[in-house]
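Dear colleagues,

As part of the handover before I leave the project, I'm documenting each prediction I ran so the next person doesn't have to rerun anything. This entry is a single chain, and its sequence is reproduced below.
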Amino acid sequence: MSEPVKPDDVLAAEYALGMLRGEARARFAARLETDDGLRASVAHWQRTLAGLDAAGQGNDDAPPAGMFDSILARIDAEGMQLPGTRTGRAEGASWLTIGPGLVARVLHTDRANNRQTLLICMSPGAVYKAHAHDIEETTFVVEGDLAFGELKLSAGDYHIAAAGSRHPPGRTVGGCVVLVTTSLSA
C-alpha cells in the first residue's frame, strides 16, 4: 500500500513544475527559506522531473518556448468568467468602513430590486446601529456571535427581518462575520 501524499509534498511538486504562481508562489518561496524538509521535497521533485526536460531535447515535435505559460494564462482568463456568471476575487477586494469596528465588502448590487449583498466583519465588542427595514433583510452568521437584544445568533444561524420591522442594535462579544442581504438604503 502506498503512503498518503502530504499537502506540502504536492505544493513542492507544483513549485518544481512552475505551477505555483503569484502570491501562492511567493508564500511558498518564503517558507523554503526556513524549512529544510520542504527544501528537500522540492529538490526531490526537481530531480524526479528533470528527465522531462531531457525527453524534449532533440525532438522536432517539442512545443514552442512559452507555450506552457500561454496555456496557463488562457485557462486562468477563461476560468474567471464562466458564461452567465461573474466572479469576485478576494485579492484586491474593496472593504468599506461602516462604523467603529465594522467593515463591509459589497458582494452584489441589484438596483432593479433595491437589494445588496454584503459580507460584514465586526470586531470584538462592535455594535451596529438599530435600524428599520424597508424590505426584507436576511442575515447568515458565518462565524462568531451576534445578538439583537435578547436574540442570540452564532455560526450557522440564519435570521430574517421582515419589511417594516425594526430591531435593536446588533452587538458582538467575540467578533463575527455575517452575510447580509438588505436594501440599498441600509
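The chain is about 30% helix and 30% strand. The mean pLDDT is 85.

All the best with the project,
I.
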